[in-house]
Amino acid sequence: MTNGVDVGAVGGISAALARVSQIQTALSAVNPTAPTPATSFARALADAMQPTVTTRNAAAAAAAGQSPALAAWPAFGPSSNASAASAAPIAGLGSASFAANTAAITAAAPANPNAGWVLPVHGRITSPFGMRTHPVTGVYKLHTGTDFAATAGTRVGAAAAGVVVSARWENGNGNTVVVDHGNGITTKYAHASKLLVTPGERVDAGQAVIAAGSTGFATGPHLHLEVRDHGQPVDPLPWLRQHGVEVV
Length: 248
What we know:
The structure is a single chain. With 248 residues, this protein is an alpha+beta fold. It has helices at 7-30, 38-56, 58-64, 82-92, 96-108, 236-242, and strands spanning 125-127, 130-133, 140-143, 146-149, 155-157, 162-170, 174-182, 185-192, 194-195, 202-203, 208-211, 222-229, 232-234. Strands 1, 4, 6, 7, 8, 10, 12 and 13 form an eight-stranded antiparallel sheet that branches. The chain has a three-stranded antiparallel sheet with strand order 5-11-9, with no helix packed on it. It has a two-stranded antiparallel sheet with strand order 2-3. It is globular, with a radius of gyration of 30 Å. 28% of the residues are buried.
């Protein structure tokens, strides 16, 4: 409390007004002609705080004819009808025009270039997802991924942004990386000649995670790509197509 003014209250209002100013500036940038509730909201916020300040220092407020907290913002000042000024602008925050302007700001923001899914490597499909006789073991079983031909050493990117949960040797798959994309979705990149990431590392879509190779049970260099939904293997090709990836 300084000279009868609640410094904490003043500081709180200052921070709120600064934020309101930022919102108003952003809205104006999107649609300069559209009315915004920012200034009215600032007035309402100040008026809403007035009873608290005047209660703590009624004499000073009465002498000044306004809340001491408002003295720092002469452009606003107390409204002639605090209750009416407080109710209408706050209701305006939920209006369709305010929601539309807010949506416009979001739409105008630069798109994340790493959002969505991409093809990890460009190469012909040498073995699709589904039942097959394994070319090395001779066992008839489910091929849990799709194989893409790739020259040894070719950089293979993550199919989507995520976190590396495993980068190690796996029996049969050789050098393998697994990336967690959230919501129970993981991808696996197997038979690598080299691992290019480590567990716990965040990767972007298309960021190299392995160099293609033929480690493990393989007849030649390629990428074995898996997509799993809560641990269950799904066909990578329909999955990629459903997520906007063009697969030949």
